[in-house]
Structure formats: C-alpha cells, structure tokens
Design goal:
Elements (H helix, E strand, L loop, with lengths): L16 H23 L3 H7 L2 H26 L3 H23 L5 H21 L4 H20 L3 H25 L4 H4 L2 H8 L1 H16 L4 H7 L2 H13 L6 H43 L14 H10 L1
Helix pairs in contact: 1-3, 1-7, 1-10, 3-6, 3-7, 4-5, 4-6, 4-12, 4-13, 5-13, 13-14
C-alpha cells in the first residue's frame, strides 16, 4: 500500500497539496477514532493527558510528520516521484547517523561504511540534479526525527496516530473552512466523486499503519526491516516506468550507491542477528550444566547468564 500510494495522490487534483494534506489530517482522525471505538481502546488517553512532556513530544511529532506528508504529496503531484522515493531509501542511513550524533550510539564498521557510501551517493546525486536532492533529504530527515520521537514517546501505532492527528485536526479543519468561505474548496466544487476521494485519504493513511502494527508483533524485526525497502522500490519503479521521469546516468550512479549502502547495512544486520541467535542457543544449551552444579550452603547459586542473551534474542 505504501509503495502504490503515488498512484493515489494525482487522483485528487485539482486540489493542491495543502488542501489534500488538510483533508488527510481530518479524515485520518475520523478513521482512527472509529477503529479505537471498535477496539474499545480509550484508557491511554487519560494517561497521556497527565504527562505534559509526552504531550509536547506528540505535538512535535505531529508537526514533523505534517512536513513529511505535505512535501511527499507535493512531490508526487509535481512529478518528483523518483526523488521522493530516494528519501525513503536513505532514511535508514539518516536514522543511523542520528543515532550516533544524538544518542551517542556506537556503530559497527559495516554501518560506518554504509553511512559513508550513502554520503557519497548524496554528493553524486547533487551533481546529477544540479542541486542537492532537497526533497529526498527533507523527507529522510523528517521521517528520521519522527521515528526518534516515536521511540521516546513509546505509544502504540494506532494510539500515536490518533494523538498526532488530534493535534493536527483543528488547524486542518480551520484551513478547510477558510477555503470553503473563499469558494476555493474543491471538496465542495469538485463533485461527489472528488469529495469521496478526499475523504478516502483517511483510509489511505490509516490502513497501512494498522497492517504494519499487526505485522510488527508477528514478523521478526529483521524481516520487517527488509520488507520496508519494498515501498520505496515500488515508488521508484512507478516514477521511472509509469510516470516516465528522467533518469540520466548520474542519477543511476547515485541510486546505485544508495542501494549498495543498503545492501551493506542489511548484510550486517542479518549477520549480527545470526550471531545473537547462535550465542543465545549456546548459552541456553550450557544452562542445564550450570544448574546441575551442587549448591553449597552460604554460597550463592550461579547467576542466570542466559537472561541477557534471551532478552536480546527476543528483541531481535
């Protein structure tokens, strides 16, 4: 669904990107509210309202994702699908770089190599476009910041979308009412079919997130990470094959470097996951031997050395 969404936004013309964005905010809240009502998941609201710091972070997340959504809609409808797809290709690299700069995380050599290759790709694409790929960079950085805030707030996918769209709702509704008062709202002037498509933006936003949330508890994290490369790949193919966007040699070179960086990153992640699982199995196999050691009075029993490995394996 995320990979095919560039086919949807052009259907909403003659509405411009800001009007589409406002409808997306309003109708997303409506869809999520219905879902929460059906699931009877309301208890989190009181807890959230009692935490001003978390509310502030939700507001920042809503602001950042507004920039991301709005720019992406504009880019697709302006014929920049390929550059928009690049933003989501380089997003993992930006996320890793932010982890180092903001969270003081330590990178493995392969991760450093991937970030370096990604930086080189941006330089090559800057030459190819004749300018920095601003659309890609803003999409990548805004989504990386959004992910960082989501990590800090630690709220479920459906609940966080509800909170964020609740923050967006009044400004978006106010803008739509203002458009209507000016006689410029295509929701009113575009006919019933156009109005129905604008209302569908809520489903287009919420449905992939609900599926993603359901998959996250059923699919290994490494598999989930690999599957997320499908969306920008579909977007890239749509840009080249369906929308016939130009791809000179310099852009192919830049994209090839990005794909090389992601290949290195994926290989390193899979290798690390295998090593973690193997270590967990080794420690688990050694546990019975440790447990069979006689315990002498006043001497503490051996610690459960498999617990950290089991936790790490479970997290992976």
């Amino acid at each position: 669904m995320w990979g095919l969404v560039p086919l949807f936004w052009p259907l909403l013309k003659p509405a411009d990107a800001i009007e589409i964005l406002a409808h997306r905010m309003v109708w997303s809240l409506a869809v999520v509210a219905v879902a929460l009502l059906a699931l009877r998941r309301w208890s989190w609201i009181r807890a959230l309202l009692s935490e001003p710091r978390k509310l502030g972070m939700i507001t920042v997340a809503a602001t950042v994702i507004t920039v991301n959504w709005g720019l992406y809609i504009w880019a697709v409808n302006a014929g920049q699908v390929v550059e928009a797809s690049l933003g989501y290709f380089i997003n993992p690299l930006v996320t890793i770089a932010m982890g180092v700069l903001l969270l003081k995380e330590r990178l493995r050599p392969a991760q450093w190599a991937a970030v370096g290759i990604g930086f080189a790709a941006v330089l090559v694409l800057t030459v190819g476009y004749g300018r920095p790929p601003w659309i890609s960079l803003i999409l990548a950085f805004s989504f990386a910041v959004y992910g960082l805030i989501k990590k800090k707030t630690n709220i479920g996918g459906l609940e966080s979308l509800a909170a964020e769209t609740a923050v967006q709702f009044l400004p978006a509704l106010g803008y739509l009412l203002w458009l209507g008062s000016q006689g410029s709202a295509t929701f009113v002037t575009g006919g019933a079919g156009h109005a129905a498509l604008l209302a569908t933006t809520g489903v287009v936003t919420a449905a992939p997130l609900v599926c993603f949330g359901a998959a996250a508890i059923r699919v290994p994290l490494s598999t989930l990470g690999l599957l997320q490369y499908l969306a920008p790949m579909f977007q890239f193919l749509l840009g080249v094959v369906y929308f016939h966007e130009a791809m000179p040699a310099e852009r192919w070179a830049g994209f090839s470097l990005v794909w090389l960086a992601l290949t290195v990153l994926t290989w390193d992640a899979l290798r690390t996951a295998r090593r973690t699982r193997a270590e967990a199995v080794r420690l688990a196999a050694a546990a019975p031997d440790a447990a069979s050691v006689p315990v002498v009075a006043d001497v503490p029993a051996p610690a459960d050395v498999t617990a950290p490995a089991r936790r790490e394996a479970a997290a992976g």
